[in-house]
Each structure stands twice: as C-alpha cells, then as structure tokens.
Amino acid sequence: MKHGRYWALAAASVLVVSFGSARVTGALWRDEEVIGGGTITSGTLDIKLGPEGAVDFPNFVIPGLGNEALTPNGFAQAPLLIRNNGTTPFNFRLQNTTVGGALPFTLAASTVANAEECPSTGAPMGATVLFNGNAAGAQVPVAPAARALAPGASEVWCFRLTTSDQPPQSATSTVTFSFRADQA
Fold first, then answer.
1. Which residues, other chains included, contact 80 with Cβ-Cβ below 8 Å and sequence gap of 6+?
2. How many angstroms separate the CA atoms of 11 and 17, rounded?
3. Cβ-count burial of 85 within 10 angstroms (0-12 exposed, 13-18 middle, 19+ buried)?
4. Which of 6, 83, 115, 168 has the highest local Cβ count within 10 Å?
5. Residues 105, 111, 117, 122: is their CA dihedral positive or negative?
6. How many alpha carbons fall within 13 Å on the CB side of residue 59?
7. Which of 24-33, 87-96, 125-134, 161-170 is predicted most confidently?
8. 174 Cβ partners below 8 Å, 6+ apart?
9. pLDDT, the chain, mean
10. Is 158 exposed, middle or buried (0-12, 13-18, 19+ CB in 10 A)?
11. Tell me, what's the pLDDT at 27?
C-alpha cells in the first residue's frame, strides 16, 4: 500500500510540474505593442467596361473587334471604355492576351480621347500608342507597371488586331484579353 501512495504522489508531482511548465512556456509566446493612431479607409473597387462603362468585367465581348472576312494584312479595330465605378483609385493593366486558333495577330493598343477616335476603318485619331507587337502574351504596360484610374474616371483604349500578309485560308481565332486591377 505504501508503494501505491508513492506512485500517486509522484504522478501528482509530474502533473504539477507539467502544468507549471506549460504556464511558463505560454508566457514566452505572448507579446503586446501599442501603435499610434491612424486612419483606416475602405472603399469599393468596381471595374466596368464597354459602352458607358456599364458592363461587368467577366466574359465581355468587345463589339466590332471581330471580322469574318479578313484579307492578308487585314485588321479589325474597336474601342474599349474602361471605367472606375468604385470609390477608391486603382491601378490596372492588360495582364495577358491569349490567341486561340490558327490566325496569328499583331496587336496595337492605344489610348484615345473617346470611342469615336477609334473608327472601325482607318487609323486611330490622336492616339497614344501603348503597345504594338505580337498579340499572344501581350501585357500592357509590362508588369509591375500599371495605369492609374481615379474613382469616376475612365479611359478609352483602341484595340487593333492585324493578320499577317499570308494568313491561313478559312481559319478562325479567338483573342482573349485579361485585365488586372489593384487598389491604389
């Protein structure tokens, strides 16, 4: 019976030591710091595309950018209105361009003052060229650069897709533009 008491006392001592060690260890992980006052501002990040900047972002088709009868060195050209409908400024860029299909394209991307300055025929008027090169993999501007857009502001981009001088016969392609926007 004496041995049973010793084991019970030994077990109780181990529990007390274990509990005491856990309490001490817990104190080693605690930290506290006081910081000065500041301002936290929240807002809405809302990107709209298309006519009047009213279309939601995913899966938007740019009207007029397709053409079913492209000839060698032929092109399709159309404007895209990008609008910040949110309450906070953001930085954005054309993150990537993918070309699916047999037709290779050259992409020219410019900014213009309004949609009328990006006619379906002829050169864009008063354009500032942002990019001119192979459409596949195009990024405008190249990361990490971006274009700033204030709340309520908009920017009109003029996209021009040009075929080669010897495009494949009876071929089709789909061009997808992926944009990225980050709160400024």
1. 49, 50, 62, 156, 157, 158, 159
2. 10
3. middle
4. 83
5. negative
6. 0
7. 125-134
8. 99, 100, 101
9. 79
10. buried
11. 46
pLDDT tops 50 at residue 23: no
Give the type of residue at 20.
G
**Rounded CA gap, 127 and 104, in Å?**
24
The residues, ordered by sequence, that sit 6+ positions from 153 with a Cβ below 8 Å of its Cβ are 83, 84
Residues in contact with 51: Cβ distance below 8 Å, sequence separation at least 6, in sequence order: 63, 81
Neighbours of 89 (CB within 10 A): 15
Contact 50, 60 (CB under 8 A): yes
The DSSP code sequence of 125-148 is SS-EEEEEEESTT--BSPTT--EE
Residue 45's closest CA among 149, 157, 176? 149
